Amino acid sequence: MNPSFDQFNTPEVQMAYLASIVESSDDAIVGKNLQSIVTSWNKGAERVFGYTAEEMIGQSITRLIPTERLGEEGQILSRIQQGKRIDHFETIRVRKDGKEIEVSVTVSAIRNAEGTIIGASKVARDITLTKQAERDREMILEKERELREKAEKADRIKNEFLATLSHELRTPLSAILGWVQILRMKPPTPEDLQQGLEVIFRNTRVQSQLIEDLLDMNRILMGKVRLDVQLVNLPEIMGVALESVALSVEAKEIQLKTIIDPLAGPVRGDPVRLQQVIWNLLTNAIKFTPKGGKVEVVLERVNSHVEINISDTGIGIKPDFLASIFDRFSQVDSSTTRHYGGLGLGLSIVKHLTELQGGTVHAKSAGEGKGSTFRVHLPLPLALHGDHLRTDRQHPSSSPDMEMEWDQPNLTDKKVLIVDDDRDTAEVVKHLLLDCGAEATLVSSAKEALAMGTFSYFDVLISDIGMPDMDGFEFIRQVRAMGKEKGSKISAIALTAFSRPEDRKLAVISGFDVYLSKPADPQELVSLVDRFVKRDE
Ligand code: ADP
User: Fold this and answer.
1) How remote is the CA of residue 331 from the centroid of ligand 1, in Å?
2) Among 41, 83, 257, 313, which is most buried by a count of CB atoms within 10 Å?
């Protein structure tokens, strides 16, 4: 042995040497007897558990063990008594400040000179931070996995979509190209020419619809859908939508039933977009219903909203597909879908457009082969909730030929002056009156109306209240003060968005004959005009 190491070789020095290693260790190194009483406690143990050596020596080690883990101590001791070691046992212990920490514990037996086990030495390492880092890493990995799966799914959907898109664009294109070639080959017969042009026309429309859908979806995704919101006469736009599918209804011999509540509207929305919603649902109903099946369209008012139900007796929808039916590019299994064609965008567009206009849309189906129902809810404008505008509620009536049951009065040759700074409202009113045969003149301010100098030419005056420069109250006062020969006695209807009781009172006090809240029920407005005209005759 190297003589220079001799001085370290005495038992005393060796003991001191070990004691210094124990003291300077970062780990907790603790001695205990077989009754779990602490016999030694190094600086590391102070740092890890927060207790000083004075506080712990002579105390039971169990004060570090959470109640629900107390059983562990018995198991550890019994292993030690059998002469076994415990290596890197990961568990939880409680610090003096009550904080739980994660520790990795290694325990080995301490024997006396005779070799009898008299206690145990325990090395505990605080692994809280390591464990936390592991959990964080696991979480990040999990998140990454989810994102990757999402990206892969999006990529798959995109690829399937591109395949579908090219298929859907090519199908009409090949019909168009085919017919163009036929017509170019030799001078076509009149029959060929007619058939060819029809096919070309139909297929270019199919293509332009596909492109419209794509552009719409893009606008929706970019948040760039612009709505031209106005009062919409739903029965009217439903009529237009129904007309546009008349040919396919006929071709598929679909039995189409329409039930329209004449008092269902009007609603606030964009007429073109609402028509698109109805048209989409209608074309789906026809597309997914076999020849000879039934499609029913119901429009009715239910409490404070209008409900449009489009149901069919077609192929129905599987329950598991119902939940995602309004998702983009969502179509039932590709074979069926290819049978029917389409991009899987229509319903997603329907949902977005309906929601943009404050409505909701739901799909219902009892399952495959059991038909489907799509229900659109649209809120009524607030002013229409009250009963003051409602006549007695009528039941929706079945009208297979789509003739609306508007009780339209005949206002031929009657002259109505409309004063309103809101062009859209004024146009709606004008339109309603023109429909009844009346002559309607539109001016956008009270001053412009007064500048006419006389009202005797007109039978009825309809005026807004809130207008810049001169409001409706002042306007009617001036009209009433003009003298009989200038038409001061003209029947006057206030049509306004102010609907507080005091506004109504003031309108009548100022000189209006009657007061209607905007948006007024078209039927009521027109019949009021009719009543005034008859009264004055
Ligand atoms: P497209 O009709 O172009 O496929 P849509 O978004 O309009 O796209 O419809 C998505 C899918 O929802 C359709 O492919 C079809 O599977 C299902 N679907 C829509 N309307 C009906 C309906 N009335 N009956 C049965 N299935 C329907």
Assistant:
1) 6
2) 41
Structure tokens at 428: 């709606």
Residue 429 CA: distances (Å) to CA of 139, 381, 419: 62, 16, 11
> Between residues 71 and 400, which one has the greater pLDDT?
71
The distance of Cα 378 from the centroid of its chain, to the nearest Å, equals 15
For 423, which DSSP code?
H
CB of 234 within 6 A of ligand 1: the answer is: no
**Under a CB-based contact definition with an 8 Å cutoff, are residues 372 and 363 in contact?**
yes
Judge if the beta carbon of residue 325 lies within 6 A of ligand 1: yes
Pairing, β 491-496 against β 514-517 = parallel
Nearest CA to ligand 1 atom 3: 342
Using alpha carbons, list the distances in angstroms from residue 324 to 96, 174, 315. Answer: 54, 32, 17
* 372 Cα to the center of ligand 1, angstroms: 10
What tokens does 59 get? 């105390």
Q: Which of 273, 366, 352, 271 is nearest to 316 (CA)?
A: 366
Centre of ligand 1 to C-alpha 123, Å, is: 67
Angle between helix axes 346-356 and 190-221 (nearest 10 degrees) is 50
Under 8 Å between Cβ of 339 and 317: no
Measured from the Cβ of residue 498, the count of other Cβ atoms closer than 10 Å reads 19
Task: Tell which residue, 147, 327, 309, 310, has the closest CA to residue 220.
Answer: 327
* Of residues 345, 347, 340, the one with CA closest to residue 171: 340
Helix (H) or strand (E) holding 132, with range, is helix 128-185
Partners of 514 in the beta sheet? 493
* Whether residue 293 has its Cβ less than 6 Å from ligand 1: no
Whole-prediction pTM value?
A: 0.49
Which residues does 276 contact at the CB level (< 8 Å), separation at least 6? 349, 350, 353
Give 222 Cα–ligand 1 centroid separation in angstroms. 24
The separation between the first and the last C-alpha atoms of the chain, rounded to the nearest angstrom, is 137
Contacts of residue 21, defined as CB under 8 A and 6 or more positions apart, other chains included, come to none
pLDDT of residue 14: 79
284 lines ligand 1 (CB under 6 A): yes
Q: State pLDDT tens for residues 437-496.
A: 999 999 999 999 999 999 999 999 999 888 888 889 999 999 999 989 999 999 999 987
318 Cα–ligand 1 center, Å: 12
Which one-letter amino acid corresponds to residue 453?
Answer: G
> Can you name the residues that pair with 60 across neighbouring β-strands?
37
Indicate the residue type of 305. Answer: H
> What are the CB-based long-range contacts (under 8 Å, 24+) for 497-503?
497/383, 497/466, 498/465, 498/466, 499/383, 499/386, 503/465
Give 339's contacts (C-beta < 8 A, 6+ positions apart). Answer: none
The rounded distance, in Å, linking the Cα atoms of 267 and 288 is 29
